[in-house]
Amino acid sequence: MTSPVMRWISLIGLYLIIFLMLVEWLVPVVQLTGTGHIGLFLAFVILCLGSNILELNGALSFLMKFVYVVWFLMYVYMGTKFFSVESFMKIAEEFVVSIRALIEGDWNGITDSFRSILFFVLLWMTVYLIHHWLTIKHSVFYFFLTTIIFLCLIDTLTNYNADFAIIRVMILGILLMGVLFINRLFKNSQVKWQPQYYSMLMIPLIIMIIGSALFAYFMPKKQALIRTPNAIAHLMDWKSGQSSGIGKIGYVEDDSKLGGPFEEDNRPVFEVATKTNQYWRIETKNIYTGKGWERKEGDIYVHTFGYGEEIPLTLKPGKKKYEDKATITLKKNYKFIMQPYGLETIDQPNDEKSFYIEIDGEKIRPTINEQKVFLPQYSMTYSTPEYSLKALEKTRNSDLKKLSKDYNQYLQLPASLPKRVQDLAVEITKDEKNLYDKANAIVSYFQYNGYRYSRTDVAVPSKNQDYVDQFLFETKSGYCDNFSTSMVVMLRTLGIPARWVKGFSEGDEVASDDDTSHFIVTNNNAHSWVEAYLPGVGWMSFEPTIGFDGFDNVLNDVKDEQNEATINPKKKENAQAKAAEQKKKEKQQQEKAKKEEKKQQQQEKKQSQGKDKAATSQLGKIVSIIVLIIILVIILFYLTRKKWMPKWLLIKYRWKGKNNILIEPLYNDLLKQLSLNGLSKAHGQTLRDFAKQVDEKFGTEHMSILTQAYEETLYSKEEPTIDKDKMIECWEYLINHLGG
Amino acid sequence: METHDKLQSIIQNIEKVMIGKKHIAELSVVALLAEGHVLLEDVPGVGKTMMVRALAKSVSANFKRIQFTPDLLPSDVIGVSIYNPKDMEFHFRPGPIMGNIVLADEINRTSPKTQSALLEGMEEAAVTIDGETVQIPKPFFVMATQNPIEYEGTYPLPEAQLDRFLLKLKMGYPSRDDEIEVLRRAEGIRPIEALTAVVTIDELKALQQEVKTVHVDELVKSYIVELARATREHQYVYLGASPRGSIALMKASQAYALLKGRRYVTPDDVQFLAPFVFAHRIILKPEARYEGITPEEIIGRVIIHTAVPIKRASR
Asked: Do B310 and A717 lie within an 8 Å CB cutoff?
């Protein structure tokens, strides 16, 4: 009586393996989609598997699963731990809404609860399919294969690291197939199921699996040939446009996960009317996590002010004589102010609104009754700050020690930051005496050391990788976020307080009258840069990103011969001209006009290049996806040829017409199909023998008749004596019995 | 088909006498049609002689029998010239070889000298006596029997001479039921006496000609050659089938196809006949003999491993 009990135990063992393999499916899916509640999903899988093992009555198991799903929805979406009619009604309502949205093709209208239902149904079906494979077919090869393929794809195309998952699945899958094979052996050879026989087969199997797994694990491995960072996010973004925050350029609040490529987006964000073009600051961020930037958690402290009142910014305006006005017209309903450098007051439209500035990030928000609102148009007064070169040259390392504790937040670094980042920063700046030159040395470093500006070829750091470290030492290719974040981090490693600034770059000049120029700032101008605190001077902005001109904010108050190497390192060539500029005002204006023009040209060029690049890379993506799909389809067709080939052949020969059919291809195609169906002719077997074998299998004489006809054409000189109609009839009979 | 009917009637005729030995009858007819000779190897008393006599009677041929003994002289086989004092001349007295169907019984019990006289006659279809060549009348069909060589007092036939025989057959004991049937028939008049000829000598000659017209496709020819070559290359074979062996297999296959009512040879015919044609033509290495492997087994393996041509190479 041991047999049924043991059999049951072995079945439980099989289901345990299946369960562990399903976990390998669920974990990445739940993790990548951010679904959560993995435990509850796994519990559902256990419920499905359990009801299969216990061979519960269909209706009962359905009821159990249904109740579980309803409870899940109530618990997760309604927050009720127990059944309540109210939440049930709510869920039912959401269900109806989703169904309606589904019918109308409104994918965004589908509620999360409905998505969960669909996911449950999918799980349910998967378990059922596996149960079918396991108990009826005694073969789970397809499940095993798809699991492996799934993990490979997930590992290649997303951030999910499936290194160990693959090993686990390999071991589980081979074990599963081995056990099933042993079960089939018992079944087919009619041997009585006995524990000692079973263990005789199981022990070598387990030793083999462990041995081969260890062998494979310890063998040296080649590095991956292609790096495809987060291609899924990439694809999703490419497909769905603005659905994900990553991927499309523009201002986004969340910077906690930087990296990944960007798409061009030249929709306008705002228009500016002002005298000079400049960067538009929105906010700063202070906490670097190793993956991106985050805000301090907890309460946000704000300072409120009204129209015309002085704004308490840490970056002080310049001298009054540079005072300027700017009018911003927003095209997107951003509920914050675009700040020019040196912002003093917000003047217009002087309505009932007031403002507050968030102390930690200096983001300014218009409010009515403490609710943030959208201010479509406003004008501001600002004075572009200027820094004395003399003062800048006096900044010393020793001054940093005297800084108050308030600046510690600008020195924050994650513990996981690799040491080599600091080593590099020290190496770059070791020859510079003052802090200003140190900062400029970092800016210059990016220009001359093989770094590349790219919006498409941008990696996302993997789980254990630092964003800055990856950019500085591995990829060396990225956009403003990479450069600015790297510079902030490097400054911080040197002890120089620094923060990360977000906003927009200058934009394109579209028109200008006497005193005012009009600029359009688009999503493409979304930008990030650096502000560093230099003791004795204050906060100062830096532009490390390659291809951006940066700030002209240093007042050249040192003698001409000395200042060449200083000022903005991006404009060394202009330094001298600029020195002369100061003396000759006329020339200055000409120069400026020229420069503007050049800048504009450069920008246009840059943009068009970017667009071209984006277009080609998108084409490449489409082509590679199509190729991938074609390959997959071919593989699928090849694998299932057993099923569809007979049908296709039938159609092919019928279409050919009776008179054009030659027996040779006809017969050889049949042989091929028979062989696909496990009836292959042995090497030394004659056709006649083989035909007998086939006929026995199908219980007919059709194959022998057909074979005789074929033999006659093959071995004799004369035409076959068998009627063609009869031949085709036999052939069709046989081919119809295949594949079906 | 008339040919087919004639051949089948021969088989049926033989079957009246020989019980449960249809394939031996068929193979004997194959050899007869292919103008070859048969070596029947088996212990005494299993019906070798009866087989030959039945065949001879069925074709109304001149039947001769030579019982080989250790003291038999070549002249006892091929004949002798005797001086006739009456007309003072030598007269040729033909020996028993001068028949249409000759039964050479227990061929391995006579001296090699006498054996070679018979074998030469089989090969040449003529004998030479006192410098004079005398043709043996056609059709000429020798059916030699021999005891298995393990028996005492035998002179094994030289291996090179064995390939004079188209086929080497083994009778084997009848099955239990067949043997009972044999006994039952032996009670009454011996059925061999009641046999009548179903084919005349001329008809037989015509049939032999017809065999030569049976189509052997290039594919089948190449298959025969592949088989022969495979026997030569086999690891256990010291001497494989010769080109003469290939020819023999083709001819036998043609005859067999005709017997089966076909005008073309199929690989099935070749496969069926290969053991009977090749087994006595290959010499095994000593190690094969120690392992108890027989030539028939080797040929079976060769057949399994040689691809049957089922497609034209190009068309």
From this structure: no
Which residue blocks in A105-229 are alpha helix, DSSP H?
Answer: 112-132, 141-157, 163-189, 195-218
Q: Which residue has the tokens 């999703």?
A: A236
Closest partner residue to A686 (CB to CB) among B217, B264, B268 is B268
* pLDDT tens digits, one per residue of B196-224: 888 888 888 888 999 999 999 888 999 99
Does any CB of chain B come closer than 8 Å to the CB of residue A668?
yes
One-letter amino acid of A199: S
Of B219, B262, B308, the CB nearest to A685: B308
CB A167 within 8 A of CB A214: no
Interface predicted TM-score (ipTM) of this complex, two decimals: 0.83
Q: At residue A404, what is the residue type?
A: S
Shortest distance between the Cα of B311 and any Cα of chain A, in A, equals 7
B177 and B242 within one domain? no
Q: A682 CB near a chain B CB, below 8 Å?
A: yes
Q: Do A715 and B304 touch (CB under 8 A)?
A: no
Least CB–CB distance from A683: residue in B217, B305, B311: B305
Q: Which of A537, A542, A543 is nearest to A557 (CA)?
A: A537
**Chain B residues in contact with A717 (beta carbon < 8 A):** 215, 217, 264
What is the residue extent of each domain of chain A? 2-218, 267-583, 641-737
Cβ(B298)–Cβ(B236) below 8 Å: yes
In a domain, B311, yes or no: no
Q: Are residues B155 and B293 in the same domain?
A: no
For A396, list phi and psi in degrees, rounded to 5.
-130, 155
CA distances from A524 to A48, A305, A504 (A): 51, 31, 9
Q: Same domain for B83 and B164?
A: yes
Residue of A nearest to B265 (CA): A715
What is the total count of domains within chain B?
A: 2
Contact B215 A689 (CB under 8 A): no
The reply to whether A687 touches chain B by the CB within 8 Å rule is yes
CATH fold for the domain made of A267-583: C8orf32 fold (3.10.620)
A15 near A49, Cβ under 8 Å? yes
Does the model's pTM come out above 0.80? no
| Residue B312: inside a domain | no
Domain boundary among B160, B190, B206: B206
**CATH, residue B125:** 3.40.50.300
Contact A383, A276 (CB under 8 A): no
Amino acid, single-letter form, for residue A475: T
How far apart, in whole angstroms, are the C-alpha atoms of residue A556 and residue B95?
140
Mean pLDDT over residues B16-39, rounded? 88
Is A675 at the interface with chain B, CB within 8 A?
no
A687/B219 Cβ within 8 A:
no
Instruction: Specify the 3-state DSSP secondary structure of A59.
Output: helix
Residues 6+ apart with CB under 8 A from B204: B32, B59, B61, B139
Can you read off the two tokens belonging to residue B245?
Answer: 């062996």
Residue B97 and residue B226 share a domain: no
Q: Is B128 in the same domain as B270?
A: no
CA distance A736 to A521: 68
Q: Identify the domain containing residue B262 by its residue range.
A: 214-305
**Mean pLDDT for each 10-residue chunk of chain A (740 residues)?**
67 85 85 77 87 82 87 80 78 84 77 83 86 77 86 79 83 86 78 76 87 84 60 51 47 75 78 83 86 78 83 77 79 84 83 83 83 84 83 82 81 84 86 85 84 80 83 84 88 88 84 80 86 86 82 70 50 47 54 64 61 65 87 88 82 80 83 84 87 87 87 81 81 78
Residues 6+ apart with CB under 8 A from A425: A442, A490, A491, A493, A494
Residue B104 belongs to a domain: yes
Neighbour-count burial of B201, counting CB atoms closer than 10 A to its CB (0-12 exposed, 13-18 middle, 19+ buried): middle
